[in-house]
What we know:
Chain A has 551 residues and is an alpha/beta fold. Chain A has helices spanning 5-11, 39-45, 83-97, 111-115, 123-129, 148-161, 172-187, 216-237, 253-262, 270-275, 280-296, 310-313, 315-330, 332-337, 343-350, 353-361, 364-372, 387-404, 421-424, 430-448, 502-516, 532-535, 540-545, and strands at 25-32, 53-59, 70-75, 102-106, 118-121, 165-170, 193-198, 241-246, 266-267, 302-307, 414-419, 454-459, 469-474, 479-484, 487-492. The longest helix of chain A has 22 residues, at 216-237. The two termini of chain A are 44 Å apart. Chains A and B meet through helix 1, helix 8, helix 19 and helix 22 of A and helix 1, helix 8, helix 19 and helix 22 of B.
Amino acid sequence: xxxxxxxxxxxxxxxxxxxxxxxxxxxxxxxxxxxxxxxxxxxxxxxxxxxxxxxxxxxxxxxxxxxxxxxxxxxxxxxxxxxxxxxxxxxxxxxxxxxxxxxxxxxxxxxxxxxxxxxxxxxxxxxxxxxxxxxxxxxxxxxxxxxxxxxxxxxxxxxxxxxxxxxxxxxxxxxxxxxxxxxxxxxxxxxxxxxxxxxxxxxxxxxxxxxxxxxxxxxxxxxxxxxxxxxxxxxxxxxxxxxxxxxxxxxxxxxxxxxxxxxxxxxxxxxxxxxxxxxxxxxxxxxxxxxxxxxxxxxxxxxxxxxxxxxxxxxxxxxxxxxxxxxxxxxxxxxxxxxxxxxxxxxxxxxxxxxxxxxxxxxxxxxxxxxxxxxxxxxxxxxxxxxxxxxxxxxxxxxxxxxxxxxxxxxxxxxxxxxxxxxxxxxxxxxxxxxxxxxxxxxxxxxxxxxxxxxxxxxxxxxxxxxxxxxxxxxxxxxxxxxxxxxxxxxxxxxxxxxxxxxxxxxxxxxxxxxxxxxxxxxxxxxxxxxxxxxxxxxxxxxxxxxxxxx
Amino acid sequence: xxxxxxxxxxxxxxxxxxxxxxxxxxxxxxxxxxxxxxxxxxxxxxxxxxxxxxxxxxxxxxxxxxxxxxxxxxxxxxxxxxxxxxxxxxxxxxxxxxxxxxxxxxxxxxxxxxxxxxxxxxxxxxxxxxxxxxxxxxxxxxxxxxxxxxxxxxxxxxxxxxxxxxxxxxxxxxxxxxxxxxxxxxxxxxxxxxxxxxxxxxxxxxxxxxxxxxxxxxxxxxxxxxxxxxxxxxxxxxxxxxxxxxxxxxxxxxxxxxxxxxxxxxxxxxxxxxxxxxxxxxxxxxxxxxxxxxxxxxxxxxxxxxxxxxxxxxxxxxxxxxxxxxxxxxxxxxxxxxxxxxxxxxxxxxxxxxxxxxxxxxxxxxxxxxxxxxxxxxxxxxxxxxxxxxxxxxxxxxxxxxxxxxxxxxxxxxxxxxxxxxxxxxxxxxxxxxxxxxxxxxxxxxxxxxxxxxxxxxxxxxxxxxxxxxxxxxxxxxxxxxxxxxxxxxxxxxxxxxxxxxxxxxxxxxxxxxxxxxxxxxxxxxxxxxxxxxxxxxxxxxxxxxxxxxx
Lengths: 551, 551
């Protein structure tokens, strides 16, 4: 396989890790935990894995030769930079514990465990993937591990391969399922441990003990690079407003971090739009006002960042979507008989006055799509809406109206962009390479210590890697009960952007200035070499959350 | 102004330059030149700047103190990484010749010269922009310097500021105009010299003496980074064909270089499509065949690179556009009376059978746009066609037909991307930082040597920078006569992709393998630090053109 010069240079990178887990290590048990909410229910559902203590690893006097351990690893869900380094961390970790240890990869995600599809990871294979992006070493998948039948199939293959532990690398749902699996295997006394690792570029799996999910650092650095380049272009050409949509359907962390890094004129944060009960027109007016204010200063260009999930955060749109789904379901037969060019009018006639007005205010391309394109379950497809184009069109319409009224005298030409796939499989930054490798090494230590139902934890990440703290957190401690598909389920609480948190508050203190001035910052591409302040620093989100100054 | 850590680190970078121009330098005159074609006409049009010798700069024994020179610099046309370094090269060059030299920047492009808008560049200003992307130091513009009235306005301001020379940093057209200006100033005995510098990310301003236009290296590195990331995602998720359009309307160099760097499955080269007289259906069938071949191997994912100008390279589409323009112009009054939903049928009824069939074969969104959206001159707007989406839709349609016939059994889901603005203003790579700085230093030497009508030339760029060759090329030597707006004009010959050239030939020797196999290469982001083979190497296009092995 041909490799780029950077691929070749990068293969030799030795990830940094906490000093406490270099060499002999001992496990120290901390206080027993409780779940973040709904303690009684969670305890009842997880009798064997609830209330466990937080554990940390500290330097020990002398290493003990431990017995060989066999581990099966699973990549679950969407790609995130650093997945291969978690695997290399596990690999090196279990081999350093005992050179006869073996690592198996279950292929194509959780279904590999159920369908008994696996491969053994060897030195040769592992070395091909160190410090690389992607999940292609064993593939990923979106099968959910929720049924006891699946769990039992897992036991079969683990017994067959003499696997002591399964490591699931995934987001909040996958780690919830890891804990259910851990509980089941513990209850059945199978001797199979289950450990989770926090993955997702969206950054919405984090809490006091998990400072960040891996991939968030690298992905936001890639997005910030291209946003910064576009900002510099906007500020040179001085003729376009660029509307840039970024991945992140459930939470706006990616957009917020990108904004902190690049200081664009306008940044929309879904959680704020929802909390303030803003309408689509509120959002459009907010952008249009900034365009006008800059135009009044002769600046007919700018940058708008939009989180992918914005449209679903707007309460009025949520209501419209809900009514559309109900109405179309109730009138399916009649709707099908309506002529194509009459369907929009039909929809308007059937909606409540409020929703009909909102529906009519949408650009034709969006209303047509909402009315006509539905998913296999008959639901309207909100995810197909190109929010960045929708906003650009609606702002243009509003400014045209203002121009007629003499309220706006500038120019407004737009470009739009969507960045997502560009960042999910980037080669991990030094931070993610180090963080992921450390998470993998810690997972190996948790397994060797006999722990199950834990998530690998590496903290103190605003300091240099040798000062990071290594340990494990009982997954049940992160859980609460939430309604899913109509039923209450124990799940890891999703971390949305906290409106009273330091990152958002810092952003709020600056955004008025950023809107009017041209205060762009150009982060440039990820650097793997060079000074530590360029190559090793992690996100502004983490730094602000830990009280660091970012000026 | 807040700066990112990389901006701060990068400001300290000292660009490398040819050893021959470090310290005392002498000018060596080479052979007299002739234009690449139409010698008699070009000589007649440029009596004062035709037939000049190529010049090179070589190390001299002792530096001579030269008199102070005042220079005015102009950025012309689209942004390209490295423009600020050309300016810092001129600045340091003229200051090193005599510390009382002054550099003026004409603001907002060539119109700054005509309208007398300028600023003096000081140490403080210059240091803010060293090694940065963008053209924001003095702004750029697209005004063409073609009229003697403009030239005379230029004389006024040069006399007023005591400017000895104007440096025009631009593409082929801007350098053509630089030469016309040089001829005019020489003929009028103004004593004002004019020097050009070769800029464009498109890579289409090059020849034997100009190895590359600046910005091409950096821009293609940015595009290759994100294409590589998307390839890794495709190869991990294994569910999408990504259609990626890249900037480059007149030539496909950017797409070819990106393909050489990343080895995608399918790469379309406009020059080949035109030379082979391919139809849109030929192109669609070519892609569909590759999709089928990969699907037969179980690979339902891939990458297609499309140059922005592809659609205009297809001879049949060119004919359709020409007939559409003529037909709509001839029938404007009647067309305006046709009801909106009848306009398409009207257009079809008026076209020749061949063009009507092609028009009808286009997706509705494209045919509607061609028929209804016209520019201020009444022409159809080919540039608005989203070629990557057009191809994805047409390939999907063909595969659906093949599926019905039992010829195709795979899956075909697509994503599309357009990369352009992401690369135009990136901070220059080490190569572009060094190359541009050297071009600027050489421009200063050409001015100090009394030359006019020359383009700054830095060659031997596949070797380390200290071995680069510095000199100047008479711009008339690059010219031929071409028809522009109905009239024959002297212009610099545009460098299209040569189908018998080494870069294209290498690509041809590999593309069948790349189409079927997953042979992706992941270049990763531009590195400014680290090993020279990672940080300093330039494009594969240049390397292949110079007979280097690239395996």
